[in-house]
Automatic annotation (TrEMBL):
Source species of the chain: Lysobacter cavernae
Source species taxonomy: Bacteria, Pseudomonadati, Pseudomonadota, Gammaproteobacteria, Lysobacterales
Signal peptide: 1-29
PROSITE patterns: PROKAR_LIPOPROTEIN
Protein name in the entry: Tetratricopeptide repeat protein
Record keywords, A-Z: Signal
Region Disordered: start-end pairs: 151-181
Source taxon at top rank: Bacteria
Pfam family name, one: TPR_19
Gene3D superfamilies: Tetratricopeptide repeat domain
Length: 181
């Protein structure tokens, strides 16, 4: 029986099967989050955390019309629950403006809806690096990080801190607007 696999015809097949098994072991599994994780509810909490109030400082940059068209496409696709397509539209927008913190946050939320938790945290952190450290967008960044941390087992060695740490940072983003005379 062993001799059967050592013939030239079968050794090529065996090598092909071995290569396929080896390559399958090298493939990375998609970051699909936790079973039972409600991504839509998490994104709703993030957006609620970013709600501005009238007595708060909130600076909004001018928007590129081409980027805005892609954002609107992404919003429509998200409403249709076409999350991969929404993420692709945001990726196109990021190619045009890779340092837009609001766009990075939108992409973080799209990643969360796809249950790509590591990507969601990475985009939120990039948004924090590029953007303001105060205001509604800052709170959305930190709440995204908190939502990702909620999915992970609590331990003393959680990289980057705890959920409570992220929520403290989120709350510190609220700054009163300067007095107007």
């Amino acid at each position: 029986m062993i001799r059967w696999f050592t013939t030239p015809r079968w050794s090529g097949v065996a090598a092909g099967v071995a290569l396929a098994i080896l390559l399958a072991g090298c493939a990375t599994a998609p970051d699909i989050g936790l079973p039972g994780f409600d991504a839509a509810a998490a994104v709703a909490e993030i957006r609620a955390a970013g709600g501005a109030n009238a007595s708060e400082l909130d600076v909004q940059p001018l928007r590129d019309p081409q980027v805005e068209d892609l954002r609107e496409d992404a919003e429509r696709l998200e409403r249709e629950r076409k999350y991969p397509e929404a993420a692709a539209a945001l990726d196109q927008a990021l190619q045009l403006n890779p340092s837009d913190p609001a766009l990075l946050q939108d992409r973080a939320e799209a990643a969360l809806l796809q249950q790509r938790l590591d990507d969601a945290e990475r985009f939120a952190r990039q948004g924090l690096e590029q953007g303001s450290k105060v205001g509604p967008l800052c709170r959305r960044h930190w709440e995204t990080i908190a939502q990702v941390r909620l999915t992970r087992p609590a331990s003393a060695d959680t990289p980057g801190g705890s959920v409570a740490d992220a929520r403290r940072e989120r709350d510190a983003c609220t700054v009163a607007a300067p007095p107007r005379y």
